[in-house]
Design brief:
Blueprint: H1 3-16, E1 23-26, H2 36-45, E2 49-53, E3 55-56, E4 62-63, H3 69-83, E5 84-85, E6 91-97, E7 100-107, E8 118-119, H4 123-127, E9 129-132, E10 135-138, H5 141-149, H6 171-184, H7 186-189, H8 194-200, E11 204-206, E12 212-214, H9 216-222, E13 235-239, E14 256-260, H10 264-278, E15 281-286, E16 289-294, H11 298-311, E17 323-328, E18 331-337, H12 360-366, H13 385-395, E19 402-405, E20 409-415, H14 422-430, H15 438-448, H16 455-462, H17 466-478, E21 482-485, E22 492-495, H18 512-519, E23 524-525, H19 526-533, H20 537-550, E24 553-556, E25 566-569
Parallel strand pairs: 1-2, 13-17
Antiparallel strand pairs: 2-7, 3-4, 5-8, 6-7, 9-10, 11-12, 13-14, 15-16, 17-18, 18-20, 19-20, 21-22, 23-25, 24-25
Length: 586
């Protein structure tokens, strides 16, 4: 880590006023804190992080003054190598900062094949932690088991189910599967007899006695009633009348409450039907005008339900937990046991080329098992489900879903609101800002609902790439429509305080008079103008561009991007046309 990068991190900590998810600060003036064992485990089991020793969080992250930084660094290295299992291999350096020395350790994420990392003295179950927000949380025994199972490809879906034979499978579905396999993959299945097809597809596996038995994947994909053997491998759907899940004023506790059973194709169909009958229609304002659509797009719902059913944890510890679908007036929540698996994380969820299957055999089967009454199969297994979900919500003008990965569970929450409703469109129009892109309008609508955005959330909501997202966010900052806290990967954006979004449209900020007053008869740089006016560099840059276009200021120098560029009032006019609207600077 460079000194400049460390200075930027500390600047962001001071701005935010607290630790952040991947940064842990300790005073360190009294020696190496024992609590660092928890942080070393947590960072190793999450996405890695940075430990900074020598800052006092209680004093606004001021330097604490380390007595012996070299010994502290050596003690930290010893803790990492001798007290942690597997050993943590950080990059530890001593940095000069504000006249003091800081010990900085960069902790790498542990390879999934080695997780969990734990403190030896407490043992694996009690000594394993994970990073949650800015704190370290002890993993439960089930979460430890999940990490252990993720060291390789789980085979829980290939386990033989005792007492279940081919007669317990739906014969029509079984015949359809075999016909599709012989047609779609003739090189593997065409010349095989019935039992050989089922063995190769792993509908049948060998049990402990050496006999053919139906696999768990085969039972869940094709069984007539899998819940006879596994009662909790089902779906529950509850529609609550209030946003808190409590009973309504009229005394209603549930508007709908059903248990959905059967094989996965049937549960998929019935879960979608339950959601659909509890949805209402809403208005979407688009280029074609007003259009009435369902509250939640069918494609997004189908992908979320299928993902929950096929990616759930099927280990013995999780077979007592069902998939839960909860509908509230303001959101729809779908939760399944078992968090994300393999290389997939919240940050790369939905990116092209990033996918992983916990239940590989089950998913492979469901590629060739159709939904009841349809020719379409349950899943495609192309890693495109999340992208399809995001595209469907984006097309419907809705916020992207919120994903929560808790190792032991994965939750998708769909907010029930239209981003670009008729009232929101009027509000954006009333801002009087010319040249806003569609993606910028979506971001403003999300921020108006009191959300906080970063670059990743902006990309997820709009579908633009990182370069475009950065440019468009900076343009919104320059227009003073949003404010930025933090820099680079820590940057977060909120709606500008001057935009009182719920009481009409605010007046448009016009910074030309302030800039001309600051210029006077002088020739000033952009930095000098920012210092005199108190405006951000992005805002000064934007208005100087507008004023150059309208001829009220002129550039002294070859390029506005040059560090030596300076500006002065135009010689053509000394009177500022205060009532003239700003030109479109898109």
């Amino acid at each position: 880590m460079l000194d400049s990068e460390l200075a930027e991190i500390i600047s962001n900590l001071r701005l935010l006023g607290a630790d952040i998810a991947d940064i842990e600060v300790k005073n360190g003036s009294g020696g190496l804190p024992k609590s660092l064992r928890e942080t070393l485990s947590a960072f190793s089991n999450a996405l890695g992080g940075v430990v900074i020793l020598g800052l006092d969080e209680g004093q606004g992250f001021a330097t604490a003054g380390l007595r012996n930084p070299a010994k502290l660094a050596a003690d930290l290295a010893s803790m990492c190598s001798s007290e942690m299992e597997p050993a943590v291999r950080p990059l530890i350096r001593i940095h000069q900062f504000e006249g003091q020395q800081l010990v900085v350790a960069e902790i790498p994420e542990l390879d999934p094949a080695q997780k969990p990392c734990f403190y030896k003295g407490a043992g694996m179950t009690k000594g394993s932690f994970v990073r949650v927000s800015d704190g370290d949380r002890r993993l439960s025994s089930y979460e430890v088991q999940i990490m252990l199972s993720s060291r390789g490809q789980p085979r829980d879906d290939e386990q033989a189910v005792s007492g279940i034979g081919l007669e317990d499978l739906d014969q029509a579905s079984l015949e359809t599967l075999m016909a599709r396999l012989r047609t779609s993959r003739p090189y593997a299945f065409k010349d095989l007899d019935r039992l050989a097809v089922l063995r190769r597809a792993k509908v049948l596996v060998t049990d402990q006695t050496g006999q053919d038995a139906v696999s768990l994947a085969g039972l869940l994909a094709l069984g007539t009633y899998p819940q006879e053997k596994f009662p909790q491998l089902m779906v529950t759907f509850v529609h609550y009348p209030t946003v808190t899940g409590t009973q309504s004023v009229a005394g209603e506790r549930f508007l709908d409450n059903v248990t959905l059973e059967g094989p996965i194709p049937v549960m998929t169909r019935d879960a979608l039907a339950a959601i659909r009958r509890n949805m209402s229609r809403r208005a979407l304002i688009a280029d074609a005008g007003r259009q009435d659509i369902w509250e939640y797009p069918e494609t997004a719902l189908r992908e979320a339900v299928v993902n929950a059913l096929v990616h759930r944890d099927l280990s013995s510890s999780a077979r007592g937990t069902q998939i839960q679908i909860e509908m509230y007036p303001d959101r729809l929540v779908i939760k399944n046991p078992g968090g994300l698996f393999g290389p997939v994380t919240i940050d790369n969820l939905g990116e092209e080329g990033i996918s992983s299957a916990r239940n590989a055999t089950l998913i492979k089967l469901l590629e060739d098992v159709p939904l009841p009454g349809e020719t379409r199969t349950v899943c495609e297994n192309r890693g495109s489900g999340i992208r399809s979900m995001l595209d469907a919500l984006r097309t419907a003008g809705m916020s992207p879903p919120q994903f929560e990965d808790r190792i032991s569970s994965f939750t998708v929450t769909f907010p029930n609101h239209t981003l670009l409703s008729e009232e929101t469109v009027r509000w954006i129009t009333g801002l009087g800002e010319h040249g806003l892109t569609d993606s910028q309008c979506v971001a403003l609508a999300m921020l108006r609902d009191e959300e906080v955005l970063d670059n990743r959330a902006y990309r997820t909501a709009t579908g633009v790439d990182s370069r475009v997202a950065t440019a468009e966010l900076q343009d919104l900052v320059a227009r003073e429509l949003i404010t930025q806290t933090g820099t680079r990967r820590w940057a977060q954006y909120r709606l500008s305080p001057r935009l009182n979004s719920h009481t009409g449209s605010p007046s448009k900020a016009d910074r030309r008079p302030a800039l001309l007053t600051a210029l006077g008869d002088e020739t000033l740089s952009r930095a000098e103008l920012a210092a005199r006016t108190g405006l951000s560099d992005q805002t000064v840059r934007r208005w100087l561009k507008v004023m150059r276009q309208e001829g009220t200021v002129e550039l002294v120098g070859s390029s506005p991007r040059s560090t030596g560029a300076r500006y002065r009032r135009s010689r053509q006019t000394l009177l500022f046309p205060r009532n003239q609207p700003a030109l479109d600077d898109s």
